Amino acid sequence: MAVFDVRQGNSPVILGFPHTGTDVPAAIWDRLNDNGKILADTDWHIHTLYDGLLDDVTTVRATFHRYVIDANRDPEGVSLYPGQNTTGLVPETDFDGKSIWKDGEAPTEKDIAERLRAFHAPYHAALAAEIERVKAIHGVAILYDCHSIRSHIPFLFEGKLPDFNIGTDLGKTCDASIEKAAITVASSAEGYDSIVNGRFKGGWTTRHYGQPETGVHAIQMELAQSTHLQTEAPPFAYDPARAERLRVHLKDILVRIAEIAPGLKR
Predict the structure, then answer these.
(1) Taking all residues of the chain, what is their mean pLDDT, rounded to a whole number?
(2) How many of the other CB atoms lie within 10 Å of CB of 141?
(3) How far apart are CA 143 and CA 128, in angstroms?
(4) How much is the pTM?
(5) Which domains does the chain have, with CATH numbers?
């Protein structure tokens, strides 16, 4: 199986999709328990949600599921949020803290090393290559990492998650103008709420690649799935009407970010 899909464009913006994939090799699928096989923690339909919003944009999408290995986690296994509940490089539980593997079938250290080689590393090699290609064209590259999550997950956070969750690792991963553009649109979007560097401050991808001093900027957008799904439960169906209302604002964010790029050249 191909572990990533790349669509090249010439915009200064790159869209990353580390969690929309649902491919699970048969040998790994057979080790998942019934709960794991629901694949509940997928970023459902996010690549569809963003499709066509920005002309000539590059997209890099992992096709494998995060239960195989999480493409947005530190390959060394270091926690993104020390002291808080989260899932690891190869998750042992779902976002509700429930086991996803059959008894005795949880991934071993050998499994993790193999999956790093076969899945995690190739995805990031492809992403890094596109960042360098785009930077060579424009002198700057802006990685916009696309995510979604259920709006109510007591294991991970209290109450309801805001609709727009902007992450820049407290402003470290991108120029302030990029963060401001996202905040301006999200905070003025009627019928939606938003937060910056709240529960989600940007995953490993954003923190790893976001080095503004080198001309590479990164920002993460974590959307509550209630904004574009019919229901946040199986079958996790896409809601075209909800999605179209949201897409107006996502397009506004992306267009503004792309327009900022020329002024960021080092």
Answers:
(1) 96
(2) 26
(3) 10
(4) 0.96
(5) 4-264 (3.40.630.40)
